[in-house]
Write a structure and sequence with these properties.
It is built from 19 helices and twelve strands.
């Protein structure tokens, strides 16, 4: 895409086209030439491209998420009760203190470092089972879709085990999550929300049924734990908060990890030295995962709004209510932060990507996502060191959540 010389409004517009969604990095480079922060009233928002600036906004209490009243006003008659925007806006993803702090504290016990580390044997077992299936399907040299058989199934299995979602229900969640997350994208046509609203309503009905079952018959899972808090009727967790946050945990629990796995495999397959290093142990898998997060983040951007008239980005003072678009994908390739940022270097020191956000909204499941990716890539490349792509992978037509729909591979040379 020819991005040289584009101005702010043109860059934002281009990012919303199929070509811009497919490869936004040239547009990010053009945006960086306008400065680490640009825009304002003429653009209708400020835009951050610099690593330090994005990081500062993510962590600043002067910035937060849109208040629900602002969201309702912005969407007006297109807001469907119980639909996608309604669901997301009521979850901790879009909550500000004190509600965010109250609800997040109830959920976070399931994602402590100690609890996540304790899941390693179970995640390894699931990964090996999925790789067994991958091998069976590709045993005679047939192309197999890594996205379908590993990248989706590993994280959905793990998060469903944590939540307590029965195994027979899990296959239905991939299309539902794919549809629901349209509501997180930069949307220029409100009609595109119809599938997202339908998915949100279906997930709402599902979790209402599941929570009713756990109320009658508690189990050792997160749904049961949150149902008990909700049943205490002490104001810590309302009925609506219970359902919308279970929906968020399910969708966020595997959508970004699925993209991390697909993006990482595609990067390794295009770089024989990286693939060899991962298979032989010369490249630590932990460092590889961090560089994947930096170089091709599963989450490319997010929005914040100034909560006070004292909010600042660098030397720029904002008024309450002014919006800020944080280009995480651009910040992760900021040359002021990373030497040679356009090169994929899994041995890069001090990567510290912003892909999981920062501040109070730092991703609850980031430790789990990292562990799943580390285990999956370690087992995959040790077991199939000759794995290669057999077709050009198919990207999802998304910008905010960046990943692949299909990534077909054969497992051994000569097949």
């Amino acid at each position: 895409m020819q991005a040289e010389g584009l101005q702010g409004q043109e860059i934002i517009g281009a990012l919303m086209t199929p070509a811009g969604r497919g490869d936004p990095y040239a547009l990010y480079a053009a945006a960086r030439k306008l400065g680490p922060v640009f825009g304002g009233a003429d653009l209708g928002m400020y835009v951050c491209t610099g690593h330090d600036e994005v990081n500062a906004v993510l962590r600043s209490p002067e910035f937060g998420k849109f208040e629900r009243e602002q969201i309702i006003e912005g969407w007006q008659e297109s807001l469907v009760e119980g639909g996608s925007v309604d669901t997301i806006s009521r979850s901790i993803l879009d909550a500000n203190p004190p509600d965010h702090r109250r609800v997040r504290s109830l959920i976070s016990s399931a994602f402590t470092p100690r609890r996540i580390a304790g899941l390693e044997p179970a995640i390894t077992r699931v990964a090996d089972q999925l790789l067994d299936e991958l091998e069976r399907r590709g045993s005679r040299g047939e192309p197999v879709d890594f996205m379908e058989y590993v990248a989706f199934r590993l994280p959905v299995t793990v998060i469903c085990e944590l939540l307590g979602v029965p195994e027979e229900d899990r296959a239905r969640f991939r299309p539902l999550a794919h549809d629901l997350t349209v509501a997180l994208e930069l949307i220029d046509d409100l009609a595109k929300l119809a599938p997202a609203d339908a998915a949100a309503l279906e997930l709402r009905a599902y979790f209402e049924k599941l929570t009713a079952q756990r109320r009658a018959q508690p189990a050792d899972d997160l749904v049961s734990a949150l149902v008990q808090v909700n049943s205490a009727d002490d104001g810590r967790l309302s009925d609506v908060e219970l359902i919308v946050n279970l929906t968020l945990l399910l969708v966020a629990g595997f959508e970004t990890t699925t993209n991390l796995l697909g993006n990482g495999l595609e990067l390794a397959l295009k770089r024989p030295a990286v693939k060899k290093g991962l298979a032989g142990g010369g490249i630590p898998v932990e460092d590889f995962v961090e560089e994947v997060l930096r170089y091709d983040s599963p989450v490319q951007l997010t929005m914040r709004v100034a909560l006070t008239d004292e909010a600042r980005i660098g030397g720029q003072r904002l008024k309450r209510g002014e919006q800020v678009l944080l280009l995480i994908g651009a910040a992760n390739r900021d040359p002021a932060r990373y030497p040679d940022p356009e090169s994929f270097d899994p041995l890069r020191p001090d990567s510290a990507p912003l892909s999981f956000g920062g501040g109070i909204h730092y991703c609850l499941g980031q430790g789990l996502a990292r562990l799943e990716a580390q285990i999956a890539f370690s087992r995959l490349f040790q077991r199939f060191p000759e794995i290669r792509a057999v077709a050009e992978p198919v990207r999802s037509d998304r910008l905010v959540l960046r990943g692949y729909e299909r990534l077909e591979v054969v497992l051994r040379e000569g097949e």
